[in-house]
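Chain A, query sequence.
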Amino acid sequence: MVSVVLDSLADGMTVREILKEYPKLTKPDIQAAIEYAATVTREEILPYTAFHRIQS
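Chain A, predicted structure.
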C-alpha cells in the first residue's frame, strides 16, 4: 500500500482525496507510508574502509 500512497501523492492527489478513494486508510497510515519510504530510500554514507571490507 506504500506504493499506492506515494503514487497517488506523486499524481497530485491530496491526503483528503486519498482517504476518500481508499476509505480503509487513515491519515496516520499515509504518514507512516511516507516515513517508511523516506527510511528505505535514505542514502547511507559509509567510510571508505567499510566499503573496502565489503568489496573484499
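The mean pLDDT is 88. DSSP finds four helices and no strands in the chain.
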